[in-house]
Write a structure and sequence with these properties.
With about 260 residues, the chain is mostly beta strands. Helices cover about 10% and strands about 45% of the residues. The protein is built from 4 helices and 23 strands. Strand 18 and strand 19 form a beta hairpin. About 35% of the residues are buried.
Length: about 260
Amino acid sequence: MQKAICLLSIIPLRETPSDKAQMVNQVLFGETFDIIETQDSWLKIELHHDLYQGWIDQKQAFILDGPQWDELKNASSYCALDMVQIFENITYGTQFPVLIGSVVYNAQNNNFSIAGQQYTHTGEVQPFEKNRNKNKMLEFAYYFLNAPYLWGGRSPFGIDCSGFTQLVYKLCGFSIPRDAWQQANVGSDINFLEEARAGDLAFFDNDEGRIIHTGILLPNNQIIHASGMVKIDQVDHQGIYNIEQKKYTHKLRMIRHID
């Protein structure tokens, strides 16, 4: 099976092989994937970090040969921590923006290489899962305040509810699934809101009982979540209460703690 990597700032991942199709996810710089199907100029891929599948334009994928993949899979990986930083491709003399949560490999003195291409960066990166902890989780979550809601988005320029929770957890060294209903199956149940801790995930369902929303719990009965934009609302045993609208907007289903 062919392996590939995203060497662009971001790649839209679509539901079907068409530029008009709904975007269901995004691939960030440095993320790798399997190519599982081809159709005309489109590739169906499966991301390595969360097994999410979708279609991308083949022109946006960088195909890795065997030695390139072997080198990459054995490399130390690092997570970009700045909201936006500028990377320079020294090999081609180009610059481009890279977003928070992107991946670099074998970073040394702000330099690294991928598949023979040399890069340099000036922002902060940290090793993945070297220190899995939630000490900075709320700080990372606050980074995204006022980011607009975007279905399938995973960046400060547009993000959806589960993309937000997944990305914040990633920045803290935790790997969780992409969609809210998948995330609801991870970790352990918290029976009462009063027992929850800041950083726990709260999940909300619709009238049919399907998980449709998630957010990160904060102190003082608050939650930060992506709904219209990333914002902070009140939460209680019934759900999310929006003070401006003076109504409950989401019905609480469960709370999960992830170690």
